[in-house]
Amino acid sequence: MPLFGNAFSPKKTPPRKSASLSNLHTLDRSTREIELGVEYGAPVMNIGGHSLTFEDGQWISESAGNVSGKELQRLKKRNLQLEEENNLLKLKIEVLFDMLSETEVKTHLIQKELEDMKNNTRRRK
């Protein structure tokens, strides 16, 4: 038996009635089509005079000055592709320089061996 008694015994909370606050799931199909339209389309919102559209998992600005949001996204993607290609070409050039250096060293060693052989044959005569 506890010294001070069982002073803390909270009451059980009742279960929640509904997880969703939206009543759209209660509407029948025809009412939903009237409310939302047959083609839902991409979500669009206007904030501070800028129109944003949600496409392919990103918000794209439709009013970005002279360049449209889609064009800006395309240019960013192309820029990334060109940067990756540039990095690959730099790597290839580095490999080619390494190969050239290795070939130059081998050529130098072969020329030295050839000169040594010529000098050895002259001494024997």
UniProtKB/TrEMBL annotation:
In this chain, the stretch annotated as Disordered covers 1-23
Q: Which residues form a coiled coil?
A: 72-120
Out of the domains of life, which is the source?
Eukaryota
**Per UniProt, which keywords does this protein have?**
Coiled coil
Q: InterPro entries given for it?
A: Chibby_fam
Keyword Coiled coil appears in the UniProt entry = yes
- One of the Pfam families matching this protein, by short name: Chibby
Name the record gives this protein = Protein chibby-like protein 1
Species of provenance: Triplophysa tibetana
Q: What is the lineage of its organism?
A: Eukaryota, Metazoa, Chordata, Craniata, Vertebrata
